[in-house]
């Protein structure tokens, strides 16, 4: 698994409230915004998503409880085979696979595992996503 | 507050177990490792730290409970005044200030706030840290 990160997702209870905080309050600009999810490009080249908590729970197949506060870290791979390879490696390393990789409604391929402390990683392939030579992840560029 | 990120911190219960997972299991290489904290450089230009949970609780002045699973996101600023400015902005935006910025034992200046969903941000100035033109954060380079 590369030492690289593509996306941080924050589960939020109220999208309007969360967007007011990050956009009106902190001055951020959204790249794309939908009812359940809103993406921001962060320097030096990855993304941060606000995602409704109950949708994130469904997507990650994991309740947001005492060990999962609703933050996931994501690594976007260059192809589906690389997703499977990283999952095999993570499982061998002792990860808990909470969602084996599967085709996603948004057109990609994604699964989730947690590390020994319960921190949640998503490993995904997204056809809309470009991984640069410098390790940057650009969304919506495919 | 810039749309930029410098560091992700994962609270861990057992440093040896966590390092075995990320290093022996996933193949990562540590940049620097101490008893309580271990840093990794992630592409495209920021850091991930493993930090003993009880030390992170003390540092963030926040228990790791149902709303705080022990992940913090950090923005490193270029000077102390920028830390204060970001805190003023965050407070005006409705953030909960859990630790106002203060001089840190490691030689920098740091505080923590949480967003409306309880997600924890650290905003810091670290004299060992260089912020590149591209928004990358390089640790231990000062």
Features:
two-stranded antiparallel sheet, 2,3-Dihydroxybiphenyl 1,2-Dioxygenase, domain 1, alpha+beta, 23% helix, 142 residues, 37% strand, 8-stranded mixed β-sheet, homodimer
Please explain how this structure is put together.
The structure is a homodimer of 142-residue chains. With 142 residues, the first copy, chain A, is α+β, with helices and mostly antiparallel strands. Chain A has one domain (7-138): 2,3-Dihydroxybiphenyl 1,2-Dioxygenase, domain 1 (Roll). Helix content of chain A is 23%, strand content 37%. Chain A contains 3 helices and 10 strands; from the N terminus they run E-H-E-E-E-H-E-H-E-E-E-E-E. In chain A, the strands form 2 sheets. Chain A has an 8-stranded mixed sheet. Chain A has a two-stranded antiparallel ribbon with strand order 9-10. Chains A and B meet through strand 1, helix 1, strand 3 and helix 3 of A and strand 1, helix 1, strand 3 and helix 3 of B.
- The low-pLDDT segments of chain A are none
CATH second-level architecture of chain A: Roll
Largest sheet of chain A: 8 strands, mixed
**Number of helical regions of chain A:** 3
What fold name goes in the CATH topology slot of chain A? Answer: 2,3-Dihydroxybiphenyl 1,2-Dioxygenase, domain 1
Count of distinct structural domains of chain A = 1
Oligomer: homodimer
The string of secondary-structure elements of chain A, in order, is: EHEEEHEHEEEEE
User: Structural class given helices, strands, pairing of chain A?
Assistant: alpha+beta
Total number of beta strands of chain A: 10
Distance between the termini of chain A: 22 Å
Largest protein interface, residues of each chain:
A-B, 55 and 55 residues
CATH hierarchy, class of chain A: Alpha Beta
């Amino acid at each position: 698994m590369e030492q690289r990160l593509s996306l941080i997702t924050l589960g939020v209870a109220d999208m309007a409230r969360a967007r007011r905080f990050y956009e009106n309050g902190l001055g951020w600009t959204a790249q794309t915004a939908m009812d359940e999810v809103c993406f921001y490009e962060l320097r030096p080249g990855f993304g941060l998503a606000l995602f409704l908590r109950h949708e994130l729970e469904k997507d990650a197949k994991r309740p947001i409880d005492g060990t999962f506060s609703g933050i996931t870290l994501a690594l976007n791979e260059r192809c589906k085979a690389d997703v499977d390879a990283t999952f095999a490696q993570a499982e061998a390393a002792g990860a808990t696979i909470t969602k084996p990789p599967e085709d996603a409604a948004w057109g990609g391929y994604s699964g989730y595992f947690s590390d020994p402390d319960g921190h949640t990683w998503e490993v995904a392939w997204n056809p809309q996503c470009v991984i640069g030579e410098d390790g940057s992840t650009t969304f919506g560029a495919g």
